[in-house]
Amino acid sequence: MIKNFLQTAWRRLWQYRSASFLSIAGLSIGMTSALLIFLWVQNEMSYDSYNPQADRTYRITAYLTNVKWVWATVPLPTAAAVQQKMPEIEKTTNIRGTGNIAFHIGNEYFPEKKCAYIDSNWFDFFHYDFLEGNPKNFFNDPFSILLTESTAKKYFGSREAIGQAIQIDTINYRVAAVVKDNPANSSFQFDVLISLQSYLSNPAAFKNDATYNNYNYRTFLRLRPGANPKKVAAGIAGVFPQSGNATKTTFDLISLKDMHFETGLTNQNDIQPASIKSVYIFSVLGVFLLVIACINYVNLTTARASRRAKEVSIRKVIGAGKASLFSQFILESLLVSLISLIITIILVRLSLPLFRQLTEKNFTDPLLHLFTWKLIGLTLLAATLLNGIYPALMLASFKPLSVFKGLNVLKVKDAWLRKGLVVLQFTFSVLLIISTIIIQRQMNYIQSLDPGYSRSQLFSFTLPWSISKGKSETERESMFSDVRHELLKYTSVAGATAASQSIVNLQSSNAGSADWDGHDTSFRPTVFQLSADPYYKDVLQIQLAQGRWFQPDSKLDQHNFVLNETAIKDFKIHTPVLGQRFTFQGDTGQIIGVVKDFHFASLHKRIGDMVFMNNPGWRNTIFVKTQAGKTPQALAAAKALWQRLAPDKPFEYIFQDEQFDQLYKDDRRLSTMIWVFSVIAIFISCLGLFGLAAFAAEQRTKEIGIRKVLGATVGNLVTLLSTDFLRLVLLSILIASPVAGWLMHQWLQDFAYHVPLSAWIFLLAGSMALLIAILTISFQALKAARSNPVKNLRTE
Amino acid sequence: MIDLKRISKWVNVGGKPNFILKDINLNIKEGEFVSIMGPSGSGKSSLLNIIGMLDDSSEGEYFFLEQAVHSLKEKQRSQLYKQYIGFVFQAYHLIDELTVYENIETPLIYQNIKSSERQAMVADILDRFQIVGKKDLFPTQLSGGQQQLVGIARALIGKPKLLLADEPTGNLNSRQGEEIMELFKQLNNEGVTIIQVTHSEKNAAYGSRIINLLDGRVDLS
Predict the structure, then answer these.
(1) Are A296 and A215 in a shared domain?
(2) Claim to verify: residue A656 and residue A671 sit in the same structural domain
(3) Structure pTM?
(4) Tell me: the pLDDT tens digits for B35-73?
(5) Residue B159 near chain A (CB below 8 Å)
(6) Which domain range does residue A291 map to?
(7) What DSSP element (H or E) covers A31?
(8) Which of B87, B106, B155 sits opposite A4 (nearest CB)?
């Protein structure tokens, strides 16, 4: 019997191959998209939880309340001191960033960004799959290095990495372990780990870190079962030496599992924070896609069910029971689901590399996860049941005679259900269209907004600390001046300037050191600071609102300041502003100029108070503006210069445009993903509507025939067939618009500067949805309207 | 074999019963070849459907092989029907997705007959109807007469005692019609009871008895 059923099912699929293709494609694409999304969501939600005793692991957060800084780091001695003081703490471990270092292997230098120093408890806290070496004797030699598998491969190819020598800053290290690449859900995406002992064996480094003044270590605590983290957090401040000065520090603990979505840190550096908001957005999107795909599939199969009425009747007349008809339908549905499953697996396989690229996460093959199969299984079960049971009940229960008599057995009694499904589907689609438009507009706004300075054809490189170490301020100033003059000799260089930081994303800030006449000392604003040389304004094309910029070779100007308009307003500087006394970072001078406000951070943040200083002691970065079309030559010039100044370091530079792009990497990724999945959702919805329009046209074949005989034109009939659906789409637009408006309003709140939610966006999205729907429906409506009425009426 | 007592069938139109069949008393013995005739709307097909258990009567008693069909449960009725009755339609009603062979085989599947047995039975009947060469074709690839032949083969595959035919030659040309009627006569001679609905006097003449219906009643005149 099964063979007979499968045979019919297969032939039917083949006979209506275009319709079969639509429903299978819709389901497969929907499942694939949802699967990828949930893979990502699951990864985000499971960050670091694979580590042993992750639920008892916490990290100390430091709040430097005076300067309003929140740090994920604490001083080195904290760990040992708190453990000694509080018995609730079972174990502690420290990790310290290395900053940018370079590997010296053979005769070459390789910059390594993702490295850290770890202490000997690290592997008790965090799980690594050791391929070579082991966690026990890794710390036997203080100069041990651990590499991930792909890093080892990068440097040593197929050679054995263990025992290989790597030189960092004239010290020889030895590769003592190779581990599997970090899983995608690890917060610690370090390619290189170095024993902390090696770092502290340098007396100067040890002296620097052994005090309670330098916050350089992420310290993790494992609490004993049942210990209260709040209580432990409250005890941390007690180990710090009591100092009378103004810096007041409080501490808190954050659970390892919550760390991935941590917000509010002043500096994040090596660990990328994630947004729980995106996780919610994508969870909803994944469910949307799954529901849309299922709805679409149900609508398409049930739409074709009327064609099956004849077959079902015959089977009944020649002896089929309800049970056998029922199992036939379920089996058929199962066949379609199975085909979809196979296609889904193939699609997931094919799209995974792209998805990895899109999310920048190193996902392992999702087909190896139990979770994936649960998800596929559930979706298929839902789809199979919906598609099998619904027509099975519907068709198995009617009287076969009515079909032969030409009565329409599939009365539109469940029209409400089907209409509801279409409304739901299109509500999702319209929602996504509106969101996509608004997100794209915001991204365009970000790209095209004039930030108030010029970042084009501008690259920067930071001179290593080693070459300015031990130089006096005057010597440093003349060194930078020499570099500048050297660079300006090249025709490919249009301008050069030295500053303390990039203007694209100014991070350095301070609260409490600024003072001016009329200052209410209880007002301690966070002030962003940048030290710039006299040429900075022209190279970066910053606009002055009043006064002047620092002058070259003016000793006096080294103590003067330029503020931005916001700072002048916030500080309520007395007029005339120019010439007013200003004290900052222990230096006192005059306000000599005011620059027009410009965006020195991402548009997520409002423009804050900012002070330009001219103190050369702070500057270590050179910004080079290149002549149009001569960028490679300018880079070569900078490199040649670098190699003369610091021959033992690799030349590293970054374009300010690149840095700007980094600023919105997460936003762009979000917008790309939403765009991709919206297109998919809309596509699947259209497939559903297409199927439903076909169904409606088929149901009304007789009516269409009669109307045609009575003289209706094709236009009349298309209108007749389309109106119902267009009404549904209109309803969807009405439902979706306020929801989308609310959601997008929430999203835009994350940007201090954003596009308005204009009415035309909603109108445009609505028209797009309507247009898409009209195109989809009119295809079927035209087909029905142009058919021969005589033929239609004869089937009755 | 068939005993109908005071069978009536009506549908309610605007609250009033509209009679399709009224007070039908009919007795058909095994081995008879009965033709039901009458103008359009006289209730021929309704009567056939009630006899074939595809439809219920509104009133009256129906005994089939001494069993009271009117009081049987759906399942038992279906059992009875599967075992003893074959149906032939004017529009053939073959399953388009199945081949000739599979169409004929399907009733046997529903009767839970083993695959090897089914093969033998289908091969037999294909042979008998001389359509072996057509067994792998689909219905749409056949002429009307051939399709009806397949329809009859399918009706007969379960070896029914009663064959019901609703205008079996209605869609065929006269030569094809004659062939089908000859086949019916031959089947009747082999012992199959046949009841056919027909408009054609000529076809009715193949039968051993003619029942005339008029406005839902047996016309005795």
Answers:
(1) no
(2) no
(3) 0.75
(4) 999 888 888 888 998 898 888 888 999 999 988 988 888
(5) no
(6) 2-43+280-447+665-794
(7) helix A17-45
(8) B106
